[in-house]
Amino acid sequence: MFCWPEILGQWNKYVRPSLWLPFLEIVWGVLTGLVAMTSNASQIYALRTFIGLAESSAWPGMMTLFMHWYTPTELAKRMGFYHSCQAIGGMMANALQTAMHEGMDGVRGMAGWRWMFIINAIVTVTFAFVGFVFLPDYPNKPNPLAFWFTKADAQLAMARLRRNNRAEPSPVNWASARRTFTNWVVYWGYAYFSLFLKSLKNPDGTNRWSVSDINAIPIGGQAIQVAFVWIWALLSDYLRTRWVLIIVQVVIGLVPCIIMSVWNVPLGAKYFSYFISYLSLGTAPLIFAWISDLIPQDPEQRALVVGVAIAMYYAVSAWSQVLIWPAVEAPHYRVGWQTSIALWALVIIMTVLLKYIDDNWMRPQRLAFREKKEQEVAATTGEPTLTSQGKQVDEDVASVKDLK
Questions:
Q1: What is the pLDDT of residue 284?
Q2: Which among 8, 17, 19, 221 would be 20 to 30 A from 104, CA to CA?
């Protein structure tokens, strides 16, 4: 159910991103505030359903916008920073939950958790209105409300796209949808920490950690995630590689899965496993930066691939998370960690396979597109293309070798 708004957001060619994304953020902000007014579980379930519908366009929408603006040496850093904001938000939420539980519980007759939803709603709606002005839309069709974005900025952005052999942004249509749905899609996800902390007991049977502790301790893991999302993204852009660093993260992710599969290990090893698992949560920015690298010549397909990939993730995780990580089995999940090992192994296979497909099928398409763009520029300027210059150099080298 959460899938259709995000695909619609990728398909939407009549409403600008600077209107669509902030509008949905306002909707989910208001609905979040209404959770504070609920009196039973059914009301929360209903609100959560509509919150999910409203927020589903945010992540894929922003990833797609980044692809329209940034070059291959810049993209992963921007995606990584945006992706890390989820962990930063989690850190702030945990800190706020701790503060709400200790300082506002009972204020005006409301529980601390209700104040948490009210504050979240206020912050969300405030920043959503800012988005109407500060989201720039596309380089070739900038946001008319963005007073700060000049015509010179737009021309510079378009020149950067051409210089890096990126096609201009264009609306998604049925032809691009056909190309996408006959091509490949990739994405995956991960699991929890708080249920483990909540399960720990003292020798007398009392809880080892208080409610405030349970909210505060995962902040350390989220801080690790933020740092390493940035590190992976910076390395990816600097080294101009995506797939190698994805594999490195998979190998790191296998370590806690193996330790937790054994389970009968010291408590310190379990803490180590949970915290080190945060080092492998920087794959998403690299995956979507790689998608942008693979199909620079087809912006419509890029937009749909992002939307469909995340929609498929939601569709699968909706039932698989409950099946693999059932809360009733916490903290010793019967098949969760073993399943994670199998999935990480599958990620390695898929990554290597995609690299093979890229080398043997997709790269020639990109090179053909690059040569076409260079010929268009050459026809306008009268200068030889880089590709033709390279071919001439190869011919000259071959002639010299023949003479020798």
A1: 87
A2: 221
